[in-house]
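ZP: hey, is the adenosine-5'-diphosphate complex queued? I don't see it on the tracker
AM: it wasn't, my bad. submitting now with these inputs:
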Amino acid sequence: MKKGEDIEFIKEGKRVDGRGFDELRDIKIEVGVLKRADGSCYLELGNNKVIAAVYGPREMHPRHAQDAKMAVVKFRYNMAPFSVDDRKRPGPDRRSVEISKVSREAVEPVIIKEYYPKTAIEVYVEILQSDAGTRTAGINAASVALADAGIPMKDLVSSVAVGKVGGEVVLDLNAVEDNYGEADMPIAMIARRNVITALQMDGRMTKEEIEKGLKLAMNACHQIYELQRTALLKRYDSSEDRAA
Ligand code: ADP
């Protein structure tokens, strides 16, 4: 099937999954789910299920890759073979290398790397179930896991995709919308300051549509930021967890 052909994306002002144009999928965030990691987060975005683990700051190997002035941030995005409809071939591929790079660039601006010269801060994102928007779900989870690991950060990073389906600008595309819609634009930002740290675009939108999309993304990232913050507070506010 060609992009956008033969699919009724919009029916009576609603999308295929019943959402409005500016509506996020349900988000669930849990902090500190892995014992061996310094920081971790489990996140659901609709049918996406992802886990992020953070290790470090710890000694950087190989040594020649160390930075004498600051920590080096490593980011690995990986899709489990069972996370998609057909089995995905295990191991890195062009897509995961690209997403790892973009995700690293999305979170790096908030990390105060100068505090830990010669070290590595390692971020691992594993996609357990995918339904479009896995890179945005991964960035949201990674940001929370970094905070959970106690990495000094200036702020949290929040991420969401906007796009165009059936001629409408919509928020947080699901798999059908992502695969067959007209455009997809994943965005990461420091929500409290409206600073964009990553932006990609697949497909075509006009200047006006992009502006509309950016507004939708900004509103949504504020909502996501509140959910991230609430999840972190829940983890660290309870005396029971503190004793664990
Ligand atoms: P994102 O997950 O960030 O939206 P893409 O736009 O590349 O990234 O992918 C959209 C969706 O397409 C993914 O969430 C996943 O459901 C599906 N997908 C991606 N890669 C594969 C693959 N190798 N096999 C099957 N499905 C895939």
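AM: back. Helices lie at 94-107, 134-148, 175-180, 207-237, 239-243.
ZP: great, adding it to the tracker
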